[in-house]
Amino acid sequence: MKKYNFYAGPAILPQEVIEQSAKSALEIGDTGLSLLEVSHRSKEVADIMEEAKTSVYELLHLNDNYEVVFLQGGASSQFFMSAMNFLGESERAGYIDTGSWSTKALKEAKKFGQAELTASSKDKNYNYIPKAYQIDKDLKYLHLTSNNTIFGTQYQGFPDSDVKYICDMSSDIFSKPIDTSKFGMIYAGAQKNLGPAGATLVILDKEFLARTSREVPTMLDYNTHIAKDSSFNTPPVFSIYVSMLTMRWLKKHGGVEGLAQKNEAKAKLLYDEIDRNTLFVGTAQKEDRSLMNVCFLLNNDALVDEFLAQSAAAGCVGIKGHRSVGGFRASIYNAMPQEGVQVLVDVMKSFEEKHG
Amino acid sequence: MKKYNFYAGPAILPQEVIEQSAKSALEIGDTGLSLLEVSHRSKEVADIMEEAKTSVYELLHLNDNYEVVFLQGGASSQFFMSAMNFLGESERAGYIDTGSWSTKALKEAKKFGQAELTASSKDKNYNYIPKAYQIDKDLKYLHLTSNNTIFGTQYQGFPDSDVKYICDMSSDIFSKPIDTSKFGMIYAGAQKNLGPAGATLVILDKEFLARTSREVPTMLDYNTHIAKDSSFNTPPVFSIYVSMLTMRWLKKHGGVEGLAQKNEAKAKLLYDEIDRNTLFVGTAQKEDRSLMNVCFLLNNDALVDEFLAQSAAAGCVGIKGHRSVGGFRASIYNAMPQEGVQVLVDVMKSFEEKHG
């Protein structure tokens, strides 16, 4: 039976990317060697690294004012690395708290400088994106989490500001066009819209980067990795390779602009059903709903296990909600086909026929 | 034509590990999903993480006094993490400098405490392992690099000492039995004897671990990862999976004890030819020769390119030496079959017939 992967992350990848990745794990090109065992100094890997980097520039329409590196350690490492590199002990940075990941980012930043809570949606269990707040011009940066996987909220736009944003885009990068000029730094763990776990994409505005001052371990200094084109030490070759293939796939499907249309249509299909179906209710405020992670509850808690079982029987994997919200979470990243969302919607409809 | 992978790292993996990895990249078990896209909270990944950890205990005969975690960032991240976690500002640690990687480890440690050079073989371009030195009882630890990929030297044993060792075993872990009781910490980037780049194995003595004091970012604290069984954040699932398969393969082939015999036989075959053949000379002092990375030169520099071409024609990939030593380097890790070494030796013999 065809399976539809609704996991929040690691998450669904395009089928052709999976097939090509498996092929290269067996043999890369006609080298007679697996991609898993060739030197990072080989021509094969150098070409992969170059195409991965170039593709980021191309897909996000980045100009030469930006540096692009692939690191390790996930977004969780960027929580402290961003502050370690950019926030002096006596300098101030603002943090918008929109859920668990934002909270963690703030916690780590406080170890390095005056990291402050600028706004939070904790009062309503993070079911919305805060909007009414002032951005102090003295802030070194304002940290945002553009999409919140656990609570199913997403920034629909980024307000104009004199202060540069540092943004965790792990779960919605490459899902829609963004005005990158507002960002001093963008980071994203690969394992949502990009590739398997193990690689972290970091995009840095050169002007913003010039403000770094603290002496840090060599491996934690962004300049180290920029100077060596992400190969100061052995990079996570296979994760970067799969990410590169995903970016090739993105370009073939209209880039982030093309994907944005598809993502809107998929999300509309599912949210419309949640709003229509008498058994279900969405958890996020409508204007802040995520196009990536759709969180919803059953009005009747006693039916949760039965709905999970029926979804699984239809091939829908990974829709159990995070314990912080409960209910269900359907993650419908770039690689999720409309067809997969339709299958889930059909389960909801037949569930209503039985229990409605 | 069959290719023999002599790369220093990322390096050769067992063929059956490669084939199973490629298969799981397509579909893990009968889930209908690729291993690249399943959640790290799924049963499939939980089982992989558990078997990977258990296998380390089993292969190295570790008792409950040790913790085992899989991290990201390579050995290069352990250079600073080990000092950040274990070396107080006013505390002293000793470093034995046996090449580029040791030098880097010392450089990073100096940012955290009184890291001192205890001994070095730099005077002879690192062609030996220092032996005549005192280990001061006041040292928090003594840092070693057990095998030096660039210079082809390897510790043949570790002297008894009251001071615990912290050891970078990236390039010879699992290649022979070791008395782990001497080590406070052992670390190894996966990409030599274990798996593809992206995972780092860290083994910690609990008693040694208890001495950590400095407040560090959450992601850089070993205790974070121990408490969450290497899943505090999304682990590099695929790299750990391939490493787990390699450990399965190791167990099938007699464990580290069985591999040690094979590794000795392979190294003897190649070193004997280097010593016998009138055209070649080994670079490392005989008593410190590495069983993993065999470095050798041609007496006549003018023939280097021709030898590289003839080796390549015979299927030997990656034997060009590191620029710090020149000549040739044949990396013959666990997964290199005796047959591959024989092919290289045969090229050396026929090269002598032509040019001797």
Descriptive notes:
2 copies of one chain form a homodimer. Chain A has 356 residues and is α/β, with parallel strands linked by helices. Chain A folds into 2 domains: 110 residues, Aspartate Aminotransferase, domain 1; 238 residues, Type I PLP-dependent aspartate aminotransferase-like (Major domain) (Aspartate Aminotransferase, domain 2). The first copy, chain A, is 36% helix and 17% strand. Chain A contains 10 helices and 14 strands. Chain A has a 7-stranded mixed sheet, with helices on both faces. A 3-stranded antiparallel sheet of chain A has the order 11-12-14, covered by helices on one side. In chain A, strands 1-13 form a two-stranded parallel sheet. In chain A, a hairpin with a 4-residue loop joins strand 6 and strand 7. In chain A, helix 1 packs antiparallel against helix 7. The two termini of chain A are 28 Å apart. The interface between A and B is large, with 66 and 65 residues.
Query: How would you spell out the order of helices and strands of chain A?
Result: EHHEHEHEEEEEEEHHHHEEHEEH
Give the helix tally of chain A.
Answer: 10
Topology-level CATH name of the largest domain in chain A: Aspartate Aminotransferase, domain 2
The gyration radius over C-alpha positions of chain A equals: 21 Å
Can you summarize the main beta sheet of chain A? 7 strands, mixed
Determine the strand fraction of chain A and express it as a percent band: 15-25%
Question: In the CATH hierarchy, what is the superfamily of the largest domain in chain A?
Answer: Type I PLP-dependent aspartate aminotransferase-like (Major domain)
- Which stretches of chain A are poorly predicted, pLDDT < 50 over at least 5 residues? none
Structural class of chain A: alpha/beta
Strand order of the largest sheet of chain A: 2-10-9-8-5-3-4
**What is the architecture of the largest domain in chain A at the second tier of CATH?**
3-Layer(aba) Sandwich
Instruction: Give the overall form of chain A.
Output: globular
